[in-house]
Amino acid sequence: MKNGFSSINFHTVTVQRYKGFCRKFGQSYTYTLEHMMDFFDHYQLSPMMEFGEDMLQMESNLKKRINALVAIVKTMEKHQTKPTIALMQLLFEHSPKKAKQPKLVEVGKGETKNSDDFFKSAFEVIELERNHTDLQQKHERTHQDLITLLEKVQVVKSFGKTRLQLEMGIKEFKALQEHHKKQ
Q1: Residue 14: its pLDDT value, please?
Q2: The whole model's pTM is what?
Q3: How far are the Cα atoms of 72, 76, 94 from residue 86, in angstroms, in the given order?
Q4: Angle of CA points 109, 112, 116, to nearest 5°
Q5: Are 31 and 39 in contact (CB under 8 A)?
Q6: What whole-number distance in Å separates Cα of residue 34 and Cα of residue 21?
Q7: Mean pLDDT per 10-residue interval, the chain, length 183 residues
């Protein structure tokens, strides 16, 4: 069923404004008017209503709510997060002091070694763990590169000896080579 057209009489000035408005959005007159009516229905607004003070009041209320949220977050940081972080730092930085005499561990024939020399602080432990993780990642990358390289090696049988041939582009091989030269 096709929609028919009907006419309404408007003042010429209003029609010119409406045509300019429709041109700005690149839509037909009917389509633009339908969207305008949908907008007013959906948001339950009246075109006769003035929004001057209402919009300013709404903006003011939103700013107050946002400021209240910011205050809540700052309070949480101040009273919950920062003391916890401080306690954790104290725990790792100032471990209980040992006896005056460090424990000695026998290493060999009459040699002794101080057991506390290896780990002087938690930061050294963290640094060692980080280095270990980096080494594991480098090992995994090298292992993956080796597997990729081995997968691209083909056995070629010819009239002479059987030989191995690498099925890899020159750029890819050079990139792999440069990556491992840097390490």
Answers
A1: 93
A2: 0.32
A3: 20, 15, 11
A4: 155
A5: no
A6: 14
A7: 81 93 86 89 79 74 88 81 70 58 54 49 70 85 84 80 82 83 74
Cβ 124 vs Cβ 113: under 8 Å: no
DSSP-assigned beta bridge partners for residue 113: 105
């709510």: which residue's tokens? Answer: 65
3-state DSSP helix/strand/coil % of the chain, to nearest 5: 60, 10, 30
Contact criterion met (CB below 8 Å) for 162 and 169: no
- Cα–Cα distance measured from residue 57 to residue 63, given in angstroms and rounded to the nearest whole number: 10
Residues 6 or more apart whose CB falls under 8 angstroms from that of 18 comprise 10, 29, 32
Asked whether 11 and 22 are in contact (CB, 8 A), the reply is: no
Chain position carrying tokens 């270990």: 132
Instruction: Report the sign of the C-alpha dihedral through residues 122, 124, 125, 130, in that order.
Output: positive
pLDDT of residue 177: 82
Rounded to whole angstroms, the Cα distance separating 52 from 56 reads 6
